[in-house]
Amino acid sequence: MKITQPCVAALTWTLKDTMGETLDVLDDPVEFLVGGNDLLPSLEEALLGHSTGSTLELQIEPEQAFGDFNDKLLFLEPRKLFPQELQEGLTMEGFALPAGCNPDAPKDVLYTVTDIYPEHVVLDGNHPLAGIAIRIRIQVAAVREATEDEIVRGSCGSGFFKVQVGLADAPSDRTLH
Question: Model-level pTM?
């Protein structure tokens, strides 16, 4: 079966930056809905017409991936507003920022704590891969028809480069898939 919209493709990949540093490896196949919300449009377009066993090597520029880095999404906030156990790498949704944070910080953004200083905390609302051109080697492990439920949801339940959201007062793990 060839990849068309909508269908489900089970993929593995190796993701690198343009300097060759490995950013993510997905060794075990994960299913993604092609024609839904699971993959970047540039990946979906490249996958169309391929079938099980196909290997694609792509370079995707920031504007086709996670956008350019936006320095207006960096915020320096008072350390005293956050719990003592705050850790770098913690993610929190904008609507969950502590009272007293910059009122101009968008509420519909996911922030990552990138630095913690004695008096300040740096929050970054950019995607972890914003501004980075990525090189990805994708292998198609399987292709199948999408179920009605998957089509309605627009997903197989796996998103591309999701960042898990943590509570403002609890540690969270960041993942790329």
Answer: 0.75
